[in-house]
Write a structure and sequence with these properties.
Helix 6 crosses helix 16. It contains 18 helices and 21 strands. It has a domain of 279 residues: Naphthalene 1,2-dioxygenase Alpha Subunit, Chain A, domain 1, CATH 3.90.380.10.
Length: 463
């Protein structure tokens, strides 16, 4: 008779983070210089999967994608294949898409509705939408008294939480709440998520594409690189608008970078600069027509951000463009490849004809065939490939634009840097990257250089 000592222990295992000070040292402490190894080195990449993708909160889905019990979509957390599924009690959960028998995937399709569960193709084990093992093929298992069906299931993502419709997950049971991870950056997220009573939704399906680049190039581009737009995207903007995108002096003066915990947004506060590039003048008019209502709700600055020339990344790999409403995740697939998932976010209350303009506008601008995406993709692919050169990879990279431009602002939370043409958010992005490499625990992670500033201390330093 079996005494239980040799039965498999099927409890979930969440790998612990370590400390990689040698990798953290690849970024200068103030972020002004980055070693090219971070873009090409396999060891660094493996450490990223452990230190960053193994414990940061990662974007999974918009709740509108899984409206009813059994609705599910597949996505990735780092390189881990994950199923996000609405439960019978209406909560949303996520599981590794991997059978606990031999590891085969249990869900073969990208999404589905009102599913009763998932079946593994290999030996026929089936799982409920709660991840539990339901059925096995044949009497073999039932006849075996040591087979503990109730203790076997899909590995759940350790924590899943919702911020105003956006669902995030983390593999770290010890991670602080999603809101603590986002910190005061929620102030800026609300520009897109809370400018209207009705909430938001994704419209249309996901657009999926592949780029042969390191995941950090697009992430750092969206976190604050408006600088490239006036050069890289000039011809694309001309094709759509019939003229160049130029910001006035006034906008340039008011523009800023805002960053906290490596999340960052840069904005030019010009109200509709990004929206204009979608090519629908009536959508621009509609956005301007909502300005006063948004101002009542969010204040003047954030109302100006909604459609402005601007971009944003939530650390590590979730980005969006206000005004164009493209939301995307850069899924890492090795040091030199990214699988890009793109969606379009709109207010639920927006009339259908305008939703359709955003959906089509996304395809014209930021899709595999979009004029701007092609501009960007070529740059990121060459930046990655060229950095692989043996001598090239030993040369430092310059992230020093706008050193010393940090200001104290009574209204805006986070670290605020005057002007949008600088590298401030990129520096914070890599400082956050280095903190994830360096620190083993969340106490240290939440209290590093990228944490919210002590405004009084900054004042004292300046004085
Ligand atoms: S691998 Fe899934 S049932 Fe065997
Ligand atoms: Fe771009």
């Amino acid at each position: 008779m079996c005494d239980g000592r040799n039965l498999p222990d099927m409890r979930p295992v969440y790998p612990k983070a370590g400390a990689y000070p040698e990798h953290a040292a690849l970024v200068k402490p103030d972020g002004t210089q980055v070693d090219r190894k971070v873009f090409v080195d396999r060891e660094v990449y493996d450490a990223e999967l452990r230190q960053i993708f193994g414990r940061a909160w990662l974007f999974l889905a918009h709740e509108s994608q899984v409206l009813n019990p059994g609705d599910f979509i597949r996505t990735f957390m780092g390189e881990d294949d994950v199923i996000v599924v609405r439960q019978r009690d209406k909560s949303i959960n996520a599981f590794l898409n991997s059978c606990p028998h031999r590891g085969n995937r249990v869900c073969q399709v990208d999404s589905g509705q009102k599913s009763r569960g998932f079946v593994c193709n290999y030996h026929g084990w089936s799982f409920g939408i709660d991840g539990g093992l339901r059925g096995t093929d044949g009497k073999v298992y039932d006849a075996d008294p040591t087979f503990e069906k109730a203790k076997i299931g899909l590995t759940p993502v350790a924590q899943v939480q919702n911020y105003k419709g956006l669902i995030f997950g983390t593999f770290d049971p010890d991670a602080p709440s999603l809101e603590e991870f986002l910190g005061p950056f929620t102030y800026y997220l609300d520009v897109m998520l809370d400018n209207d009573d009705g909430g938001t939704e994704f419209v249309g399906g996901a657009i999926k594409s592949t780029m042969e680049c390191n995941w950090k190039f697009p992430a750092e581009n969206f976190v604050g690189d408006i600088l490239h737009a006036f050069w890289t995207h000039q011809s694309g903007a001309q094709a759509i608008l019939g003229g160049a995108v130029n910001l006035g002096e006034k906008e340039r003066e008011r523009a800023f970078h805002a960053t906290v915990y490596g999340h960052g947004i840069e904005t030019n506060l010009d109200k509709v600069g990004n929206t204009k590039t979608l090519g629908y003048p009536e959508l621009v008019e509609h956005t301007l027509g909502r300005f006063e209502a948004m101002k009542q709700r969010l204040g003047d600055t954030r109302a100006r951000m909604f459609g402005a020339v601007s971009s944003c990344t939530i650390f590590p790999n979730f980005s969006f463009l206000p005004g164009q409403s493209t939301f995307r995740v850069w899924h890492p697939k090795g040091p030199g490849r990214v699988d890009l998932y793109t969606w379009t976010l709109v207010n639920k209350n927006l009339p259908d004809e305008y939703k359709e303009m955003y959906r089509k506008g996304t395809m014209i601008t930021f899709s595999p065939g979009g004029v701007f995406e092609m501009d960007d993709g070529e740059n990121w692919e060459y930046a990655t490939r060229i950095n692989e050169g043996w001598v090239t990879r030993h040369q430092p990279l310059h992230y020093g634009l706008g050193i010393g431009s940090e200001v104290v602002d009574s209204e805006l939370p986070g670290h605020i840097y005057r002007g949008s043409l600088n590298d401030a958010n990129q520096r914070h992005f890599y400082m956050r990257w280095a903190e994830f490499m360096q620190f083993e625990n969340w106490d240290d992670l939440q209290n590093g250089r990228t944490a919210p500033p002590q405004k009084t201390r900054l004042n004292a330093e300046e004085g």
